[in-house]
Amino acid sequence: MKHVLILGAGISGLGAAHVLLRHGTHVVISDLKDQIQNNKEKEELIGLGAEFCFGEQSESLLDGMDAVVVSPVIPAENVVIQGAMKRHIPVLSEVELAYRVTKAPILAITGTNGKTTTTTLLGSMLSHSGRPFALAGNLGISLSREAELVPENGLIAAEVSSFQLEFITRFRPKAAVILNITPDHLERHHTMEAYVAAKARIFENMDETNCILLNADDPYTPMLKKQAEAHTHVCLLSTSHGVEEGACLSGDRLVLKRRGETIPLCTAGELLLKGKQNIEDCLAAAFLAHEGGVDTAVIIEALKTFAALPNRIEFVRKLDGVSYYNDSKATNTDAAIKGMEAFDKPVILIAGGHDKGTPLSDFMQTVRSHTKELILLGAAAERFEEAAREAGVSSIHRVSSMKEAVLLGQKLAKPGDVVILSPACSSFDMYKNMEERGMDFKKNVKSLM
């Protein structure tokens, strides 16, 4: 590739630019707006020969180009991508570029929920293994930029989204996991069938020297297992029953099963992470680390010491006997269900935000059985309230701000109660991102008297 157009001047696009420029490629970076916050990096790229083109995008950007590298936020309907396909110009995701430039094996994580926790925990295991490693992907870290620097004897922990998998051609991880699949990103993929198909691309280039770990407790797994078996070796993950090969619970103990050997790890009670989703994430990370050759003792130590990430059922404080938890990362209904189910008592739930338009019936059934009060805010509040009433939820409150939500949660709570922000929505109606929403929740909780 001598001439490459990069669509999107975010972390992914700029990372790809650095990599391609190091390989002597002529690079043009296109974005609708110049929102690059690091002017020094922009000037550095220009000094290395990159060209920036901001403003309206048209098919003329493709003139003279050998390939297009597309950032995850750019959909397939983009006029430039459609033009590239018509001209038979290859369109690559940054994940595909990373695979092409790295010498190290990739351990890849995808799924609707739990990706970041699993990837970060896997990164912790790799960091203590003594081997060179990189932790990157859909984490706000450029995968291609990190992957290129890892030597052949190293390992790469990569969080991979459905958006990134849309434009792969050769990407083949050494081992991978699909944690779960529930309705999400339908505004991008339009149908569940398309969303599932995007996730399934993670194993399309794998072979019998690789393996894919699928969640035996997920309803989409029978279909995915049949598809994956045509490509690679399939192992299973479960917290509800044993598996022949893969990762599961044996009583309270996490175990791996591989090549006829059972490898005991720690117990669920020894984990700092709580809840079914977190146990699944721990099993998945341990399995991938084992596939990468990490010592069992290192895996166990990481499992015992790894704490919850910010915005993921994150304990904020206890005041007057009431515990407050920030689960702002729960940007879809399934994640919010898991947030509620992490507690053995009904919670006071703060939910709502930018409405993704996903079905609410299962979510509201869990709200009815797992909450004592429902506090709604944001653009989705009206539809959520309507669905809640249809499901028989009676204690519903509407507020207009996070401060009002937190104050009302305090007013409704009694000693022993849990107040949790688990929105089941993205944050873009009121905040820049879910991190900002989580920080606002924590700020208001910490200011309670």
Defining key terms:
alpha/beta; Rossmann fold; UDP-N-acetylmuramoyl-L-alanine:D-glutamate ligase; Protein-Tyrosine Phosphatase, Chain A; 3 domains; six-stranded mixed β-sheet; 17 helices; 20 strands
In short:
With 449 residues, this protein is of the alpha/beta class.
Characterise this structure.
- This protein has 449 residues and is of the alpha/beta class.
- The protein folds into three domains: 3-89, Rossmann fold (3-Layer(aba) Sandwich), CATH 3.40.50.720; 95-305, UDP-N-acetylmuramoyl-L-alanine:D-glutamate ligase (3-Layer(aba) Sandwich); 314-446, Alpha-Beta Complex (Protein-Tyrosine Phosphatase, Chain A).
- Helix content is 36%, strand content 22%.
- It is built from 17 helices and 20 strands.
- The chain has helices spanning 11-22, 39-47, 79-87, 94-101, 115-127, 143-147, 162-165, 186-189, 192-200, 221-228, 276-291, 296-305, 333-341, 361-370, 381-390, 402-412, 434-446; strands spanning 3-7, 26-31, 51-54, 67-70, 91-93, 106-110, 133-137, 155-159, 175-178, 211-215, 233-238, 246-250, 253-258, 261-267, 314-319, 322-326, 347-351, 371-376, 396-398, 418-421.
- The strands form three sheets. A nine-stranded mixed β-sheet has the order 7-8-6-9-10-11-12-13-14, with helices on both faces. A six-stranded mixed β-sheet has the order 15-16-20-17-18-19, with helices on both faces. A five-stranded parallel β-sheet has the order 3-2-1-4-5.
- Helix 11 packs antiparallel against helix 12 and helix 16 crosses helix 17.
- It is globular.
- The N and C termini lie far apart (61 Å).
- The mean pLDDT is 93.
